[in-house]
Amino acid sequence: MPAMNKNSERSHIGNVFNKLLKQIGNPVDFELPDWFNKWKPMPYTFIKRNIYLTKKIKRRLEDDGIFCSCSPSQGSSSVCGRDCHCGMLLSSCSSVCKCGSSCLNKPFQHRPVKKMKLVQTEKCGSGIVADEDIKQGEFVIEYVGEVIDDKTCEERLWNMKHRGETNFYLCEINRDMVIDATYKGNKSRYINHSCCPNTEMQKWIIDGETRIGIFATRDVKKGEHLTYDYQFVQFGADQDCHCGARGCRRKLGVRPTKPKMSSVAALKLVACQVYQNGGLHIGNSQPFHNQRGTRSCNCIGEVIRISRPTNQRSFGIIKRFDRYSKKHSIMFEDGGIEFLDMSKEEWELVTL
């Protein structure tokens, strides 16, 4: 059979298309309905751990001085519960700890991820609902993605803006280090914002590496939407918030307002917390109530001076209060962290 001439083949195909166009008539613009576009999740590659596209910085745990000596309590074989010093300092236990194989404060990759499912919301696109009950304080999932530097982050943001994209999956973890879950990540990328969330992001040190865990801030029922506060950094036009919370701030990027507190009031807050341990060395021992009559228990960020010998560090910032052990995490001027029972220390608030 003789070979077909390529020119005649193109001509034949062209004639077929011309016939079709005549039968169709004038072209009609076709557009998919909005609900279809909104529901279609942005494609991404599932990963379990962060992928570093920038230099990976690991800290030696022995330099941080973070370790525990937990031992099993009576009637329980597991160790490193809520009173574990490593966990209180947002660090997983490591080889320098003495807790052994029964440790509960494991690295994120060895913790069970809570059951959850992807759903479509009315106003916020895709979202995540809990597929099991979650207790307050429990680990939900790790936020993972590609770890990039600030320069790459800026380039990606501009490219996304030029494409008209409004969904961003960026989370800053350290200076010049950002997790971008746009192209690679897990279900955590679909957790929506709320001005009154039921989970929070926590920055942990896992085997010397800074990672982001999402933890429940209250009990969450099966079928409830998982949310956290994005603390959104604006890039481009304002975005409306549709979380529906009672205290909704209406716009993403509007930070929650915190009333300014006098040094005396802050001192009373610290006193209120350490009073639960049965003693104070300075300050008012009466529980502090604000003007609305509600009991306050937050003095994070206040600067204190602890009475110590001159050759020892004494100035620090209150970073965290653990209500189970009734101890405060104090970061000192040299960057070191100590977990202290303030009722056993001589201290005073520093007015800056």
From TrEMBL:
GO BP field: methylation
AWS domain residues: 63-112
Cleavable signal peptide: none
CDD domains reported for this sequence: SET_ASHR3-like, Tudor_Agenet_AtEML-like
Keywords: Centromere, Chromatin regulator, Chromosome, Methyltransferase, Nucleus, S-adenosyl-L-methionine, Transferase
Residue ranges the record marks as coiled coil: none
Domain SET: 114-231
Subcellular location(s) per record: Chromosome, Centromere; Nucleus
Gene Ontology MF annotations: histone methyltransferase activity
InterPro entries, alphabetized: ASHR3-like_SET, AWS_dom, Hist-Lys_N-MeTrfase_SET2_plant, Post-SET_dom, SET2_Histone-Lys_MeTrsfase, SET_dom, SET_dom_sf
SMART domains linked to this entry: AWS, PostSET, SET
Superkingdom as given in the UniProt entry: Eukaryota
Domain Post-SET: from-to ranges: 237-253
Bilayer-spanning residue ranges: none
One Gene Ontology cellular component: nucleus
Function: Histone methyltransferase.
Name of protein: Histone-lysine N-methyltransferase
Organism, as annotated: Prunus persica (Peach)
